Amino acid sequence: MSLDLLEKYSKIVYYCSHCRLCSIANYHLLKDWVPICPSGEYFKFESYFSSGRMELIRGLLEGELKRTKTETIMKIAFGCQVCGGCYTQCSDHTALGETQQQVETFEDLRTALVDMYGALPKHQELADDTTKDHNPYKDSNNNRFNWLEGKNIPAGSKTIYFAGCTASFREQEIAKATVNLLEAVGQDFSILGPDEWCCGSPLLRTGQRKVAMPLIEHNYNILKERGIERIITSCAGCYQTIKNDYPKFLGKKLDIKIVHSVQFFQNKIKSGELKLKGKDLKITYHDPCHIARHANIRKAPRKVIEAIPNIKFEEFQRNKKNAWCCGAGGGVKKAFGDFANWTANQRILEADKIKDLQAIVSTCPFCKNNLKQAVERMGRKYRVMDLTELLQECI
Predict the structure, then answer these.
(1) Residue 152, phi-psi category: left (phi > 0), alpha (psi -120 to 50), beta (remainder)
(2) Residue pLDDT, tens place only, 285-334
(3) What domains, with CATH codes, occur in the chain?
């Protein structure tokens, strides 16, 4: 049993002064004292805030906590969406001369615990399904592109559309809208078909790196074999994973351009290749953690929304890098369903404060899925849609 992966944090854990600013969205910008950490707000103990997890790491490294598996330690480590809200506040406010990258730290903590004790049962199920089917949804990967409904996508392009698992098996309207928009602007592209495997994000977030590596290596090898030069994806998780995690864990540059669909279509709107009709709709925009905080894509979706004639747009109170998480990420939806639902419910309560709101728009299939379920559960009338779906309605 080893915590070698955490040894690099043996000094930095002392930089945390337990000021707890990591738990609050930037009050200088928002002019209000509102939470940003779903885990701490839900579980209501210091252990579940970033500062508490830093103490957990210190206690494990220094032997104050027994290095034996306990339900409490696993719950603290995994009862978190690793949304990065804590990191954005710590980096904004710290005066200690050092900034902690909590997302990386807590994913390392999870990996160390999984290597020592094994995964949580629900996360092990996720790993088993993804290893068997190459997607986490208990469906044959041969059905990944069934949503094309017979539409022919020519092979041989150096640009591919990487749909991702959730758009392929759960939120297929996003994948359909993306393909329709790509065709509308005359973009040549191909797909990987059944050779597109899960990007590995759910496994990386749940500490199961050893299980994720065959998926990562397969996707990398297929991309290289086919000479792919550009990937367009409409999934925030796939974007973050392929762009940032693949080079890190493969130990090599991809030499492939990774583009989120919102970036791609913003450029097409700017160039005049994608012309939009007006839309009479009052919307707000939900920032996915993977691109808004982890990848700093915050301007592009707003530029796209601004380009739609007649659209009425009002921000959530918590927005951009101060956005509240949808609740589904980090393996929480799989292992802590009630917590995931509560987090999404809080976002809908925030939406209720926007007068005459008709639709919540995002740029992540996972966010759409969890927020849509919350709207249905709470009996609201809001549409929950991806920005690609909104654009499709405007062409």
Answers:
(1) beta
(2) 999 999 999 999 999 999 999 999 999 999 999 999 999 999 999 999 99
(3) 4-118 (no CATH), 123-265 (3.40.50.1860), 274-392 (3.40.50.2300)
